[in-house]
Design goal:
This protein is of the alpha/beta class and 414 residues long. The protein is 31% helix and 25% strand. Among the domains are: 3-108 and 230-318, ANL, N-terminal domain (Rossmann fold), CATH 3.40.50; 323-413, 2-Layer Sandwich (GMP Synthetase, Chain A, domain 3), CATH 3.30.300.30. The strands form four sheets. An eleven-stranded mixed sheet has the order 4-3-5-6-7-8-9-13-12-11-10, with helices on both faces. Helix 1 (8-29) packs across helix 2 (31-40), helix 6 (158-171) packs across helix 7 and helix 7 (180-192) packs across helix 8.
Amino acid sequence: MNSQWWDENQMKQYQEERLRILIKHSVATVPYYRDLFKELRLNPDDISSRRDLKKLPILTKTIIKKEGIDRFTSSAVSKKKIKNFSSSGSTGEPLFYFSTKEAYSFILASNLRGWYWMNYRLGDKYIKLSQNARKSLIKRLQDKMSRNLYLATNPLINSNFEYILNEIEKYKPKVIRCYPDPLLFLARYKKKHPKFFYHPQSITTTGNTLYPETRSEIETAFGCKIFDSYSCEGNSTVFECPTHDCYHSTEEYGISEVIDDKENIITTGLGRLISTDLWNLAHPFIRYDTQDFIEIDDKPCICGRKHLRINKILGRDNEVLIMENGHRFIVHNFTGFFQTDSPGIKRSVDQFQVVKKNDQTILFRLVVNDKYSESVADYIRSFWENESKTQVTIEIVDQIPISLSGKNRFIIND
């Protein structure tokens, strides 16, 4: 709570002290980094500041999987002090890795501070909505201790929406936590059934990109503000500022670099997030490619916090379509298009998914209603064929299912 008000010099000094500890530990005890430094002819003292990190190559998930988890595991950390983790695997196979209990505790503190920004306090009742039923006895005990009512959003059917909303009415939580996509379906059901009138003080979302139109629908239905958050293996927790103007990264936990297409570090604009985890000594992530695109700004936030200012979290690099003509399209290009009224697209298309196929053509999967017509289809095809310079086809489907991890994939790269 105190360090959120540190100035830039205090934060830099703190990060670089942790960085020096991390580098020396990694070179001495982690096989991959020992070999990497030898190959690059670097000594641990050569990486003593944030600027020095560019001497090291970017670490990718592919490299970690190819090398194997043992190559990244420290020999100096006791097995009694580590925990097993994995990424969600929503866009591919999950990444398995270790972390220390100390690092895990730091992340919990980071999340809790973000929750305090939305006026939650320890002991307040909250509801966590997640895809799968709670099976772990330890997790159920944690729920009891933290006054969390855990509810499964699966199956995404009206009877379950009815059950969840009834539980919300009875439990009256201060906060609701959920992925945006299943919460959107729940919000739409709630809007159609005004008998459910309870609204929490805040909603916090995580797990996948929260788009402006999704935020608007959920906030309207539940009558409260959303505080979005973002997390990823090897990266600091990112939480929405109380001003709702931006997000702030927990810089006490890690060093964030944002790079452009040529891997140059930028201080403003859109780029790929590269993260160095300063606390996970069991499986160090140094200059790790999160595969996520964010938009940053070097203007000071009016809240007074000096932590990295993130204006937008734009999603994974496999959620970017790169066409043969060099044009790039992110999800926002498509969500904006399908919110246009002309010629009746917004009124006739309920859901969409864009697939870039192996032959470079584009397929639109659409869930439509009775307002959809061939003229709308012709407009979609002609517009995107002109934009992408490739063939566009349309497939009408009954539904576009959410993935097992609870995330809606708007873009798929075949």
